[in-house]
Amino acid sequence: MKDTRRDEALAYLRTMLEETTRAQHLVSAGSAIPALQALLRVRHLGKQSIAALLGDCLSATILQAAQADQVTLSRLAELIGFAQQALCQACRSEVGKRWKEAEDV
């Protein structure tokens, strides 16, 4: 399952590169609005890749959390809160879903 999430994140990154290249060509051709639309898609894809990568980190951390002390858990909660601030609502939901899946395992 871990490889699937990694592959998913890599697919997002590849698509981001394609969209960024497309936006660059659109700017060169003088098409500012389509270029901005492509960059907005890149931004959304970036957030999705963060969600995919966080899913792996969170599931690994949950397994270790049972053995961690309270200070470590507090720090983990801070890091998770910080990471989630960068995500859109849909990506936050995806991270939450993956967190729940990891807890159920």
Topology, element by element:
Blueprint: H1 2-28, H2 32-65, H3 70-85, H4 89-104
How does this model look, in words?
This protein is an all-alpha fold and 105 residues long. It has one domain. Helices cover 89% and strands 0% of the residues. It contains 4 helices and no strands. It has helices spanning 2-28, 32-65, 70-85, 89-104. α1 runs antiparallel to α2, α2 (32-65) runs antiparallel to α3 (70-85) and α2 runs parallel beside α4. It is elongated, with a radius of gyration of 17 Å. The two termini are 12 Å apart. The mean pLDDT is 78.
Quick structural overview:
With 105 residues, the chain is an all-alpha fold. Helices cover 89% and strands 0% of the residues. The protein has one domain (2-104).
Which class do the helix and strand fractions yield?
Answer: mainly alpha
In total, how many beta strands?
A: 0
H/E series: HHHH
**What is the percent of helical residues?**
over 70%
Measured by DSSP, the beta-strand proportion falls in under 5%
Radius of gyration: 17 Å
Poorly predicted spans:
none
Distance between the terminal alpha carbons, to the nearest Å? 12 Å
Number of domains: 1
Number of helices: 4
Biggest sheet layout: none
The residue-averaged pLDDT reads 78
Global shape: elongated
